[in-house]
Design a protein that fits this description.
The chain folds into two domains: about 290 residues, P-loop containing nucleotide triphosphate hydrolases (Rossmann fold), CATH 3.40.50; about 280 residues, 3-Layer(aba) Sandwich (Rossmann fold), CATH 3.40.50.880. It has about 575 residues and is an alpha/beta fold. The strands form four sheets. Strands 11-10-12-13-21-20-19-16-17 form a nine-stranded mixed beta sheet, sandwiched between helices. The chain has a seven-stranded parallel beta sheet with strand order 5-2-6-1-7-8-9, sandwiched between helices. The chain contains 21 helices and 21 strands.
Length: about 575
């Protein structure tokens, strides 16, 4: 097993996750089996109880793990399926060690950070690195480990010490450290500064780790003189200094790394049995990046949510929309709308925001209401859903978005004016959305209906079934504590809101579709977590197709979602007109 440790310096959020994912992509393109581990130094057991404003979205895995969003990057880039134990937190490690102490495993010993915590970290990494993550179920050959935070953080010290020891246990030819640092360029001078990187590398060396590669992040391409300066002061060869400047899309990052000779370096440094040139996989990435930058047609989607001040709050939703837009040769224009601003207010400032928000919503080609928790902003989401339904705007509701679509339909089509979810009004006379007692025991962490579950289609006449390739069932990831009340579904179906997908027992409503509407779909699951750059999520693809007026042509052609369909031709001359010759796009 080869281990690549990715650390960061100067600031957090510098792009370690994308760098780690890109390195994994490059090595996978060389024919190696790659897995990934993310270490988060916080004391929380997992990311499930975070506000999205704390660490971005909560990413859900097949096994129900609620983890850091960087694991989503790993899965999308590497097209693998990870597990909750691929996300290590301080809380998990300490809980593991304390449980062993209570069981008497350390009987007579004083339990300390060194060696007990550090040994637990190393043992966890070595065990999890062997777990197969590809469909072929073979043991990985390379494990990319990302250490969250920045070097020097007090929370990360036990992990740094663990890897200081681990580099000798694994042997030099099996362990490599990549340090990602920032090269700022102050506006006052316009000069790219290397001192932050020098200080960060000095701190890393002082803790016992020496970087094999220094990846310098910057807003603009870095000059050769800066590279030579970093090489001299950070005690590495010039070819060990890699530059990654801000690019138009993350698809470009693996290409930049490969162009700077990273394959040749890894081959020599880790003694890898690979060729110097990558396979067709990386060439597909290059064509995809090229095509992304040449897109001319634009599709605008309004995302109506409550965490709109930070784009990472809806990272997977954005990526799923982007994958789908790219598949049909459109550039995505994603407009974030704070749902509270759609709710009418008499205050002057809020009134201005109200009109601006409605202006965005009205000009959008499609509307998306994602998942969420809590009552704040729900009335605004209901207004957006009502607009989409009555104005025939393509609409996708995910999790809470689907539940609110049912509430809106009950209020305005069934005339149940007090219809609501028991999450927001426990005393409502028409509880169209109810809680699931077995998933609401009082504890907050890890108690929801989580992970991959089967959804069975109940009818042949379903748009989403066709988009999924006419499968009888699909498996998608869930994260919810409330569900549509199954006792009331017949009332909705009589009026045209069809529950076309149920769970395997037929008790839980998973998919809704509205009759006589271009695309009005709600799903209880979170399909964005399974979307991949070359395999876009069917519900999101359907939204983009409907928003661009090409859904009917796509369905008539009987297209199934697979790489050979969506990405059969990543050449320069691919165009929507060629993919959809009978559509409105032509």
């Amino acid at each position: 097993m080869k281990y690549i440790l990715v650390t960061g310096g100067v600031i957090s959020g510098i792009g370690k996750g994308i760098i780690a994912s890109s390195i994994g992509t490059i090595l996978k393109s060389c024919g190696l089996r790659v897995t990934a581990i993310k270490i988060d130094p916080y004391i929380n057991i997992d990311a499930g109880t975070f506000s999205p404003y704390e660490h971005g979205e909560v990413f859900v895995l097949n096994d129900g793990g609620e983890v850091d969003l960087d694991l989503g990057n790993y899965e999308r880039f590497l097209d693998i399926n990870l597990y909750k134990d691929n996300n290590i937190t301080t809380g998990k490690i300490y809980q593991h060690v304390i449980n062993k102490e209570r069981h008497g495993d350390y009987l007579g010993k004083t339990v300390q950070v060194v060696p007990h915590i550090t040994d637990a970290v190393q043992e966890w990494v070595m065990n999890q690195a062997k777990v197969p993550v590809d469909d072929d179920r073979k043991e990985p050959q390379i494990c990319v480990i990302e250490l969250g935070g920045t070097i020097g953080d007090i929370e990360g010290m036990p992990f740094v010490e663990a890897f200081r020891q681990f580099q000798f246990k694994a042997k030099r030819e099996n362990f490599c450290n990549i340090h990602v640092s920032l090269v700022p360029q102050p506006n006052a001078t316009g000069e790219q500064k290397t001192k932050p990187t020098q200080n960060s590398v000095r701190a890393l060396r002082g803790l016992g780790l020496s970087p094999d590669l220094i990846v310098c992040r910057s807003a603009k391409p870095i000059e050769m003189a800066v590279k030579e300066k970093i090489s001299m002061f950070c005690h590495v060869e010039p070819e060990q200094v890699i530059f990654i400047h801000d690019v138009s899309s993350t698809y470009r990052v693996p290409i930049l790394l490969e162009e700077q000779g990273i394959i040749k370096y890894f081959k020599q440094r880790l003694n890898l049995p690979i060729d110097d040139q990558p396979s067709d996989l990386l060439m597909k990435w290059k064509k995809m990046a090229d095509r992304y930058e040449r897109l001319l047609k634009v599709c605008s989607i309004a995302l109506v949510g409550k965490y709109t001040k930070l784009s990472d709050c809806y990272a997977s939703v954005f990526k799923a929309l982007e994958h789908s837009a790219l598949a049909i040769n459109h550039k995505l224009d994603l407009m974030y709308i704070d749902s509270t601003e759609l709710e009418h207010s008499t205050e002057v400032e809020n009134s201005v925001k109200y009109h601006q928000a409605w202006h965005k919503l009205c000009k959008a080609d499609g509307i998306l209401v994602p998942g969420g928790f809590g009552i704040r902003g729900t009335e605004g989401k209901l207004q957006a859903i009502s607009w989409a339904r009555t104005k025939k705007k393509p609409f996708l509701g995910v999790c809470l978005g689907m539940q609110l679509a049912v509430v809106e339909f009950a209020r305005n089509c069934l005339n149940w004016k007090d219809a609501n979810s028991t999450e927001f009004d426990s005393d409502t006379k028409n509880p169209v959305v109810i809680d699931m007692p077995e998933h609401n025991p009082g504890d907050m962490g890890g108690t929801m209906r989580l992970g991959k579950r089967k959804t069975v289609f109940k009818t042949q006449n379903s748009v989403l079934r066709k988009l999924y390739g006419d499968e009888t069932f699909v498996e998608e990831r869930h994260r919810h504590r409330y569900e549509v009340n199954p006792e009331l579904t017949h009332c909705f179906e009589e009026k045209g809101l069809k529950f076309v997908g149920h769970d395997t027992e037929g008790n839980r409503m998973e998919i809704i579709e509205l009759e006589n509407h271009p695309y009005f779909v709600g799903v209880q699951f979170h399909p964005e977590f399974s979307s991949r750059p070359m395999k876009p999520s069917p519900p999101y693809l359907g939204l983009l197709l409907a928003a661009t007026g090409t859904l009917n042509a796509y369905l008539q052609r009987g297209c199934k979602l697979s790489p050979s369909d969506s990405y059969s031709d990543l050449s320069d001359d691919s165009s929507p007109e060629k993919e959809f010759p009978n559509s409105e796009a032509s």
